[in-house]
Amino acid sequence: MNHVASTFESNALLLVGVALAFAVAMILAVVIERFAVAGHEAWLRRTTRHYTPLVRLALAGDPGARAALRRSPTWHRITIARMILIPLITDRDPARIADARELIDALPLMPFAAQLLRSPWWWRRAMALRALGAMQADGYTGPIVAALDDSNDDVRNTALDALADMHDPASLPAIVVRLHDASLHRARRGAALAAFGSACEPFLLDLAAVDTEHRLNYAMALGICGTTAARPILCEWSGDARAPVRAAAMAALSRIGVDRASVPFAIAALEDGDAAVRAMAAAALHGYADRDTAASLAGHLDDTWAVAVRAARSLQTMEAAGRAELEARATGAGLPALLARQMLWEAKASR
Which residue, 59, 124, 217, 304, has fewest beta-carbon neighbours within 10 Å? Predict the structure, then answer.
């Protein structure tokens, strides 16, 4: 019995020693990591202070400053590139971009950015993509499109931003195909389409003709970059069995504008069983000054709020026909009268 107790006691002491050693090792690792981070940040501040005046002079075309930057150590190039390029993310002034591109070419830093695309660290790949996009670098569309399949979400989203900045028509098919990629931020997908505008429309219409499963995405995309050429297919989609698709089709028509052929589809959508569809249909009819259309809209001033307020806004844009319907309802009570009086007051105040 004493032997068993002695063995247990010795093993317990060993386990306590191992646990203490592990705890000490973890504490040392955290302390070393904090010191390393603090040291790197201090080095980065010193380096930034050293190069800030040189970068400013080099962007202004000073040959001495450019020569000094060319002589800089290779491990300083990332910091220099960041100082040149990060301001371009928010400042898209063409003259500033041209100055930065000239300086990048003169150093040269573009081959260095291309090397970073193959870095094992995702943040370096992302920085390289941001640089290539901001500089609208020729000849790098292929590698940037390939980065849309990167294993890291941030790198993929940065690649999409870079393609939007570059405006290279060769990347359009890849951008349109990634419209359904849920790993890419929805706003960034929309921004990429908006960057190319109506140039995206033919690809979207071709794909929409064969891919009915993703019709909602195509309708939303046409709401960003569609033109009058998209009206027929949007009118067709107003009869889709899925309410979100019908609503998106009406929203796209609202941005593009309706014509004589598409107005009947919007009026029919005003009677849809889904409130979101009715609201978007009411918005789509704005500016179409027609007595029958105005009467149809006026009948929805007592609908749900989202529908009623859009119907009122559209009536406000219909000149005499809309004003007559608003005046006819302004003397009553309830929501229709309240909205009608508000629209009439706003119209009078804006004259």
Answer: 304
